[in-house]
Amino acid sequence: MRYIALIVVLLSGLVLLYTEKDLPPWGDPNSPASLHVSPKYLRDSLQETAVPNVVTSVLADYRGYDTMFETTVIFCAGLACFVLLRVFKVERKEAHYRHKATGLIIHVKVPNLLDNSSEFERVDTMWVPHDLILKTMCRFLIPFIQLFALYVVAHGHHSPGGGFQGGVILGASIILLSISFDLRTGLERVNERSISLMSATGVFVFTGIGAICLFLGSQFLNYGILSKILGVDPVMSRSWGIFGVEVGVAITVMAVMIGIYNYISSEGKLDEGL
Amino acid sequence: MGWHVDIIILTLVVITAIAAIQIKDLLATAILFGAYSFMMCVLWSIMGAVDVAFTEASVGAGVSTVFFVAAIFHTTRRSQD
Amino acid sequence: MADIIGYILGKYNYWMAVVLMMIGLYAMLAKKNLIKKIVGMNIFQTAIILFYISIGFKKGATVPIIEHNTHVIDVAKYANPLPHVLMLTAIVVAVSTFGVALALAVRVYQEHGTLEENEILSELQE
Fold first, then answer.
1. A269, A85 in Cβ contact below 8 A?
2. C5: which chain B residues are within 8 Å (Cβ-Cβ)?
3. Residue of A nearest to B66 (CA)
4. Given an 8 Å threshold on Cβ–Cβ distance, is A9 in contact with C29?
């Protein structure tokens, strides 16, 4: 199998390398990729949408239909992980508890015995020691990470960033909480029901803005018509439409990243994590 | 000066990619895969694609490595080839 | 001779993208471990993204964010934004596929107890 794979790889590699002599030289400003539509986007983006970052305006306004289906793809990935892995009836056979005052760990063969006690806290079966420095530093850092993520979402118009990047950083902050403390601590903050609702809400916001444009009389996802309900001129309403759409993408991406981490790290049981 | 840095980082990218698929310890594969993603991110930001580099840094060198380590935790750490 | 060297050095980004694609393809075909196949798929995807971003590069050009008070926009001064947009969607699809593939690998391990392709096949044939 390995030799067949090597021969196939070498043949396709040679064919691809042979076709490369027809490609334009690297870094040429007059290559065909830079000649037809993209000068129009570069010239008209600032006047028509009041957004200096051309990548954001092309992603959310000129090619907004693509981005809507990209958000749907992320939602479907979260849904697929849920369907594949989630197990609802879990029989726990044993539990480990840690006495808070002395740090002693006990192993109990009867499940749910000391779950509600105030002197014992539950630890994972793959036990790691209680680390004060790690927990304090992560608890200190997480609000700043979330603040930075909200900054990235809000400044997608003027600097690199936008909805997707901010959503991933927001999801990463809750994943950091789940890693440094416990999966149950992360689930107390963002439980499974709010993750499911949020991942659908983001797609709904995106499609909803497009549908509002449709009901106001223009085409789907034509944000210029939103000036009727927003009260600004059509150029600024396109800018606000881009911002609303980015918020929708950020909500969905955050929920799906947290959801996939929860399901993979607990094998679907949502009981004990990494 | 621009093309010196390009060639060095491209060589690093190819070395990391070959190492990531040849090593038998899957945790080392996860870390090398994160390093590969990060080298690609540096390459793209040299070429002026800062949005794409930001996305790849947050996704590839961040969340993707965490998913990989979580999956290895629940399966084996050793691979036969 | 200088002609050939100039020809090779002029387009080395595209050569390296093809080399990376072939590394990813080899990992998907020849490796028996499921996780190695998933890593190979992701290497292939990022190599394609490298290819597209190299197409959109212009020598001496800057980031496609228009400066504050420009009246006449010189198109050759900014990098081509269209491949960047398409590749943002490609990265998103890559991470989604990676997450679902890892979930599938965990599930396969739960059912069969191994992640090697030949052992799973021989267990299924019994």
1. no
2. none
3. A261
4. yes
Task: Check CB contact of A134 with chain C, cutoff 8 Å.
Answer: no
pLDDT of residue A58: 92
Would you say residue C64 lies in a domain?
no
Tell me, yes or no, whether B6 lies in a domain.
Answer: yes
Q: What's this model's pTM, rounded to 2 decimal places?
A: 0.92
What is the 3-state composition of chain A as percent helix, strand, coil, each rounded to the nearest 5? Answer: 65, 5, 30
Residue from C82, C87, C49, C45 nearest C64 by CA: C82
Chain A interface, mutation test: which of B3, B41, B54, B77, most A Cβ atoms within 10 Å?
B54
Domain carrying residue B34: 2-74
A142 touches C: beta carbon within 8 Å: no
A154: left (phi over 0), alpha (psi -120 to 50) or beta: alpha
Query: Of A75, A126, A85, whose CA–CA distance to C102 is shortest?
Result: A85
Contact between chains at B20 and C39 (C-beta distance less than 8 A): yes
DSSP for C101-122 reads HHHHHHHHHHHHS--BHHHHHH
CATH number, position C37: 1.10.287.3510
User: How many structural domains comprise chain C?
Assistant: 1
Q: Do B54 and A55 touch (CB under 8 A)?
A: no
All residue ranges of chain B with pLDDT < 70 are 1-3
Q: Which residue has the tokens 């899957």?
A: B26
Chains with ≥3 Cβ pairs under 8 A against B?
Answer: A, C
| Nearest alpha carbon to residue A139 among A96, A100, A189, A99 | A189
Give the least confident one: A159-168, B52-61, C72-81, C105-114.
C72-81
Residues A255 and A251: their CA atoms lie apart, in Å, by 6
pLDDT greater than 90 at residue C26: yes
Strand order in the sheet with A120-123: A105-108, A95-99, A120-123
Return the residue of A nearest to B2 by Cα.
A27
> What is the C-alpha radius of gyration for chain A, rounded to an integer number of angstroms?
25
ipTM of this predicted structure: 0.91
- For chain B, how many structural domains are there in total? 1
Instruction: Note the maximum CA span of chain B.
Output: 46
**Residue A83 or C69, more confident:** A83
The domain spans of chain A are: 43-88+131-265
Closest-CA distance, A229 to chain B, in angstroms, reads 32
pLDDT score of A182 more than 80 = yes
- C56-70 pLDDT, tens digit each: 888 888 888 888 777
For residue C71, the model assigns a pLDDT of: 76
Q: Tell me which chain C residues have a C-beta less than 8 angstroms from the C-beta of B72.
A: 35
- The verdict on B81 touching C (C-beta cutoff 8 Å) is yes
**Is C87 part of a structural domain of the chain?**
yes
* Closest chain C residue to the Cα of A162, Cα to Cα: C88
* Cβ contacts of B26 on chain C, cutoff 8 Å: 33, 35
